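Exam revision sheet. Question 4 asks you to relate a sequence to its structure. Input first:
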Amino acid sequence: MLFSPILVLCLVLHIGIAASADSCSGRCNSGVDSSKSCQCNSACETYGDCCTDYQSECLGGAYSCNSRCGESYNSGNPCHCNDLCSQYSNCCTDYDSQCSGGVDPGVDSCSSRCGESYNAANPCHCNDQCTQYSNCCTDYDSLCSGGGNPGETLSSLAEALWEADDNGIGGSDLVFNRQAYLSNYAARNDLSSQPLFTYVNPAKLDTGTWPTFRALLDNYIRFTGSSDTNTANEEREIENFLDEVFNTRVMDLTYDYLFNKGYFSSLSAFRSYVKDIWFTSYTRSGGVLDSSAFEHTFVGEVKNGKVSGYHNWLAFYEDELEGNVNYYGYTSDNEPNQILMQFRLDDNGSSYYKELASIIYGASPEFELAIFTVCFKENPNALSTFTMAGGITQKVQTWDYNGGYIGSAYFSV
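Answer key, structure tokens:
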């Protein structure tokens, strides 16, 4: 059979377009494109949707930390770019320069460098002392909270929020049992025979913002590809939750901080922004509206056979009560109340693993909502470094999804 030249050309073009949709060629570090079947940015490893040539096209054969700082552990990578790689001696060779504050001469940005230690080799600096010595990078104010009222920094806000967290639960009202240290978390061995949480005072969960927060947890289907469109009742539950949250000292302080930075001119505008970035439904499967920032971060999801997100302590506690999760142990922790842990989620007769997940136990939902929102607003797609709870260094990672919504947010422990 003979084919016309025009038909042959059309077939070639069709094959080429299909191939490019599944390739990172020309797409490295691009934003999320839901029309494509796979992605080519630093978040794709977190969400498990990288194109097959992501490493070879975008990571220099996966031997570079370029665009990978703070990534989740992936045993398929020959070297790693997260806070644990130094401990396990498996960092990529350019980890220090790409992820720990080192910059090439002439680079004049605080992107991913906020709160870094002083390095005389850097042409400009991104820590709390740079204003004193007049050597801040030009984008320090916008990325690291250096502007605004005197003394008003991300660290001072976080300290204030932690002190003002009236709905936080601690002391004898929360009994925590971290148990076994996992020296080899890739082995997925359950080394902890008891639940992570021994006791949470139920009376505390009936006060403040907790009842409206708990009402949201059953509004989502964890599996991507299944629609999560809110019903009218679920929309009311979101509004009720936001009503309670915006009636707390935590959110008052957060709004004052962002107002003084010039981000918002009214409380109603700030509330609309919070609802939009956290509760707007979007797709992680390229099809139905199956996800949102709130679902991913606070409830957790299952995508490509793995648990993703799931960074809220109360959701984990309630899943433990229902027998839905099995805590395996921890790999690191930090004050106040932070742990990096491993667990198995059982759902619909199948088991799914979360190799590493961080939570800050006892913190109220408004505290997490506030600190994650500020870090995303000021420093999206980057690691924000600050101090809290009496000067203890903290790190929060946020990711952008679909251009302006939160893809994920968590304390990097």
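Marking note for examiners. The chain is about 30% helix and 15% strand.
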